[in-house]
Design a protein that fits this description.
With 130 residues, this protein is α+β, with helices and mostly antiparallel strands. Helices cover 43% and strands 13% of the residues.
């Protein structure tokens, strides 16, 4: 795999803490890819999308659309996801579901585009006509 986990942290379901952590991981640590897991549903403690939306500079709805389409093949509950994906500076942030099985299925869908997205953010690709 071309990806290496450099940080793994469990963060409380509190919008302010999630915002602070996402900003820290991008602004201080310069992490290329941040994957959150959980907190994307409609429960009262599900605030990850709100925190992510507050932190990102550009939203990337295609990632979430692709995950939802794939998820609908398995369960209609995929419609309840409020996941967000976007960029902050040169980092890509993607909200994933809380279920390990759903995380794996969603990663299979988005990972092919992740490397290319990071290369664009870092200025490593001048033409995007692939």
């Amino acid at each position: 795999s071309i990806y290496q986990a450099i940080k793994y942290e469990i963060v409380p379901d509190e919008k302010e803490i999630i915002c602070r952590k996402l900003k820290e991981w991008v602004d201080k640590d310069g992490i290329d890819l941040i994957l959150t897991s959980g907190g994307t549903g409609i429960g009262p403690r599900d605030v990850t999308p709100e925190a992510t939306k507050e932190v990102i500079e550009k939203e990337l709805p295609g990632f979430v659309e692709a995950m939802r389409i794939k998820g609908l093949e398995k369960t209609p509950f995929s419609m309840l996801s409020r996941a967000i994906a976007g960029t902050r500076k040169k980092s890509l942030i993607i909200n994933l579901p809380g279920s390990p099985k759903a995380v794996k299925e969603n990663l299979e869908v988005v990972l092919p585009a992740v490397k290319h997205g990071i290369e664009i953010l870092k200025g490593e690709i001048s033409k995007c006509g692939r």
